[in-house]
Amino acid sequence: MSNLAYKIDILVIGGGQAGLSAAYHLHRLGLKGGKEFLLLDKSPEPGGAWQFRWPSLTMKTINRLHDLPGMRFAEVLDPGQTEVRAAEAVPAYFRAYEQRFQLPVYRPVTVRLVCGRGERLRIETDHETFSARGIINATGTWDAPQIPYYPGRELFQGRQMHTHDYQRPEEFAGKRVVIVGAGISALQFLDEISRVAARTIWVTRRPPEFHEGDFTAEDGRAAVARVEERVRQGLIPGSVVSVTGIPITPAIRAMQDRGVLNRQPMFSEITPTGIRWPDGREEAVDVILWATGFRSALDHLAPLQLREENGGIVMTGRLATQAARDPRVHLVGYGPSASTIGANRAGGAAAGELVQFLGLASSTSEREAHAK
Ligand SMILES: Cc1cc2nc3c(=O)[nH]c(=O)nc-3n(C[C@H](O)[C@H](O)[C@H](O)COP(=O)(O)OP(=O)(O)OC[C@H]3O[C@@H](n4cnc5c(N)ncnc54)[C@H](O)[C@@H]3O)c2cc1C
């Protein structure tokens, strides 16, 4: 590979909610797109991971999408249009957003490796190599599906798939399906698949915590605070559901009424034809659907050695976006900011702090003063 590297001050990696928010704030702080900052995105189109989500995930069935800073989603889609697929609506919004603020997004470009080179960072991609003074990493989780290991997994003769691969319930017609996981996606799959499958079995490691009533803004803040506390201590963030529980929605009630919400404990073993529990009970299944979440897609940052021995990363800064081991590196959409609202705020905090840290703040305010 050539040693020539394209020099830039700040590189944003990833073009989902978190990356766009960071780019918007860098632009607002007066940095010149293309000269002082750039955004690289691996996805073929605008929309971050939303463009890959299954067709039955609509604006009605998602949790809630928060507006990106500076432009309302309602400008692109009427709030009443709840049946529209999230995989179409959100990408349309992100595309309009990138155009409105003329954000310098280069895609599809995959960042393969980021390593230290003295005072700069070297960023190797499947296209050019870049040399940056700081990075804001916003690569999400979609590319890192998490499947826990159970003995016998490699011997199973049926089909195993993850949330990442789910498309439509019709694929499961007449099949015996075990759905693993206690999150919102697992429940949506159970709802859809139980209508067409020969049999569904729902298993979770811990009994799911359902709660009555809406999830309030206060609940949200408390959940985020707990995850933030974890990452400030260098612990692995943990899933959002592990701190929020599952709200009892009309869809959940309807599942209860249909008798499909029968949670079973986790099996301990996978056989060639099914699953086995610790007491020896067995069930034959055709499909194991792992709705077991994602981890953060950070492998390209491995050379920076940000991780502690336990695998966590000590985070610091106003909203815990700055990697304590290398302050030139911010992670947004990670830990407490792994939601659309969190990603928005984190983008702003990371942009402001990194610009300050790199001493770009004075030049931007000087520039702004000249421009007036
Ligand atoms: C099924 C599902 C439903 C969800 N529903 C909601 C919801 O309703 N409300 C909510 O607030 N949150 C929801 N979330 C969480 C939500 O997706 C995130 O909070 C938010 O959209 C993530 O934004 P992001 O920018 O961090 O990541 P992403 O949207 O994943 O964007 C990351 C981008 O980085 C790119 N990328 C990855 N690796 C590289 C690389 N090496 N080089 C270059 N580019 C790279 C990807 O291609 C992608 O475009 C949901 C998550 C899932 C899995």
Automatic annotation (TrEMBL):
User: Which InterPro entries does the record associate with it?
Assistant: Auxin_biosynth/cation_transpt, FAD/NAD-bd_sf
Q: Which keywords does this chain's UniProt record carry?
A: Oxidoreductase
SUPFAM superfamilies, per database record: FAD/NAD(P)-binding domain
Q: Which Pfam families match?
A: Pyr_redox_3
Q: Which GO terms describe its molecular function?
A: flavin adenine dinucleotide binding; monooxygenase activity
Q: Does the UniProt entry include the keyword Oxidoreductase?
A: yes
Name-wise, this protein is: Pyridine nucleotide-disulfide oxidoreductase
Organism from which the protein derives: Paracoccus zhejiangensis
